[in-house]
Write a structure and sequence with these properties.
The chain has about 400 residues and is α/β, with parallel strands linked by helices. The chain has two domains: about 5-45 and about 290-400, Alpha-Beta Complex (Aspartate Aminotransferase, domain 1), CATH 3.90.1150.10; about 65-285, Type I PLP-dependent aspartate aminotransferase-like (Major domain) (Aspartate Aminotransferase, domain 2), CATH 3.40.640. It contains 13 helices and twelve strands. The strands form three sheets. The chain has a seven-stranded mixed β-sheet with strand order 2-8-7-6-5-3-4, with helices on both faces. Strands 9-12-11 form a three-stranded antiparallel β-sheet. The longest helix is centred in the C-terminal third of the chain and has 21 residues, at about 290-310. The radius of gyration is 21 Å and the shape is globular.
Amino acid sequence: MSFLAQSLSRVKPSATIAVTNKARELKAAGRDVIGLGAGEPDFDTPDNIKEAAIRAIRDGRTKYTAVDGIPELKAAIVEKFKRENNLAYTPAQISVGTGGKQVLYNALMATLNPGDEVLIPAPYWVSYPDMVLLAGAEPTFIDASMATGFKVTADALDAAITPKTKWLIFNSPSNPSGAAYTRAELRAIADVLLKHPHVWVMTDDMYEHLVYDDFVFATLAEVEPALTDRTLTVNGVSKAYCMTGWRIGYAGGPAQLIKAMANIQSQSTSNPCTISQWAAVEALNGPQDFIPRNNKVFKERRDLVVSMLNQARGLHCPTPEGAFYVYPSCEGLIGRTAPSGKRIETDEDFVSELLEAEGVAVVQGSAFGLGPNFRISYATATSDLEEACTRIQRFCGSLT
């Protein structure tokens, strides 16, 4: 319709949300569907966090707060960064938003101009490019294929930087691949960035605590303190604390940038939900012992899914270091024919036919900028995962 903004023509709806909604619709219509599209832990929010929210309600802490976070939450975030990441921030360097997505969006809206470029390793979280486009700039992609463990190399990054590059968006552990960068790999990335002082870095550390085996998480500003003055370190309580619906994300960065982000937020949403902020204080300051317990279950699920997918004809599934996703390749099935008679030409064809034939909802790799792959979230009941993988094996075996 002509009265809609032209900028909307530059963006598309979130593919992960679309898959989740499609699965819900099919379930409501009576189909037996297993949805593996949502990046959301199936564990409940811990009781101590719930009680903190209830206490805030009972104590009347239900009024407007400072635009970008209550002092108590900013103090908890400052302490978290110091304790876990060896990063020193003041409260004036902390931004709190309605989820990590708003924090990222605020930063891009506050800094980007027409003609600016933002480097994004592919595969990427579906929202990064569209947020850049909405901010009026151009996303530029760097290949981070299966051959390099879904990680961008220092040489590839160096070659991709131009005078127009304003930001690098850097996500580790990664959505969608689960790939996580070692300290040595971060060191190589940091060395490239030191050569290009005009490039700012947005590190999306949302899956920081969701790492497995002997992997040790690190973040870029921690590895190279000289990057701190041009790094926005973004995190949140959604994933590790099982608080997706509470909508609290946060970031630490240069005070001038944080102030600009607050200006954007003051004219869009104002403060995040007061009750959720008090719950987040408890999440960051309270017991952390449930995180390794949850991770033990996630690791078992990861190992189950990787093993079963690698037993499916035509699939190849690497073992990720973190997050709760796998990103298998279906290249070995391209050109085959589904039971419906449709020829599988793309990963989107694969996931569409899988949903139709077996009632398993996954997300096509093309939505994340790299195919032919698809993403599975294993943040769901183990029994559902086992059944879903059995169906995927059956579907792959049925292709002719």
